[in-house]
Amino acid sequence: MNITLRLLCDDDYDAFHAIVSDFDVVKMTSSWPYPAEEEFTRMRMSTPEAKTGQVNAIEVNGEFAGVVGVVNADVGYFIGKAFWGRGVMTHALKMKTNEFFSDPSSTVLTSCVWHDNPASARVLEKNGFRKTGECIDFCKARNAEVQSLQFELTKETWLQNVGATPIPQIKTSRLELRPIRMDDAPAITNHLSKWSVMQWLSAPPWPYESKDAEWFVTQDYPTHWAIEAGNGLIGVIAFDPTLGYWLAAEEQGQGYMSEAVNAVLAWHFDQSDSPVISSHMPQNSASRRVLLKHGFTDTKLEKIFSRTHGRETDIQRMELTADRWQQLENRGAIA
Questions:
Q1: Are residues 147 and 183 in the same domain?
Q2: pLDDT, tens digit, for every residue of 203-218?
């Protein structure tokens, strides 16, 4: 099952409005009306928060499933009934939580659920949220006051959760992939201060400064490796849960990233049959060649909000299944 977060678009309207027309869905929200109102749905799809990616569409195997958003450090979400009980919301909230805490200024994330929504409470608890209190709030769909349970996730708890399983150190013929260390900050700052590297990224801020790297190396991400080729960090490869990477400008063109990607994919498929998702900007032909070499196939072209560029940008989504990986491995096509 391929679960992704993306910007809302006009084509989502029919599926979105159908979901909020279901009383069983909107009775678990606070502000959505029932019966559903077309103008209200369109308004919520076009808010500044939706346009900038604070609120995202949840997509499951290419189908619109619901929304998740963080506004003023408070997270809210809902999905269509067809997607209940499949772990979709737990996974989507994990992705949104990781995005929220990637901001150095983010320290606490809150959420509220109605007392008669135990499924939503479990989603929060699976992501490390803890109940902090109760209150009474107004539910527009029910036109009544309802008891609400308040939850909180601190950055400290989030770091404990994401750092629970240490990543392995991986060695290839030329490279060493190892956990990121505090003393990597100067090298990261140096490499990411070059637009030739940063132009293909969407998450880091631009311009990239030493304080950004100093924050990054303290985050203890569970699956971010430093890439070394004998003389310090030359790049980073991450798997959280999508595959992403960057390489220093002066080290490109030597096959290093293909070697690192191959190692991380082998590590993943040794322990899991779940597909691997990655993406690249359409103009980044070098990154595309790496992914194609390892069996990735196109899934869809979409727009995301790029923090690096400060605007929406196109990205090509790609996927690699366990069966496809095994076929290539058996043929020696990725040796």
A1: no
A2: 899 999 998 888 788 6
113, 128, 161 - which closes a domain? 161
pLDDT in tens, 24-49: 999 999 999 999 999 999 999 999 99
Same domain? For 208 and 230 the reply is yes
pLDDT the model gives residue 164:
46
What are φ and ψ of residue 200, in 5° steps?
-100, 5
Count of domains observed in the chain: 2
Place of tokens 């939706």: 50
List the domain range (segments joined by +) for residue 127. Answer: 3-161
Same domain for 73 and 40: yes
Same domain, 40 and 54: yes
Question: Residue 219 carries which DSSP code?
Answer: S
- For 65-106, write each residue's pLDDT tens digit: 999 999 999 999 999 999 998 888 988 998 899 888 877 788
**Dihedral sign computed on CA atoms, order 131, 133, 139, 144:** positive
Burial class (CB in 10 A: 0-12, 13-18, 19+), 48: exposed
Instruction: Find the CATH number of the domain harbouring 139.
Output: 3.40.630.30
Buried residues in 286-312 as b, exposed as e (16+ CB within 10 A): ebbebbeebbbeebeebebbbbbeeee
Alpha-carbon gap, residue 60 to 78, rounded angstroms: 14
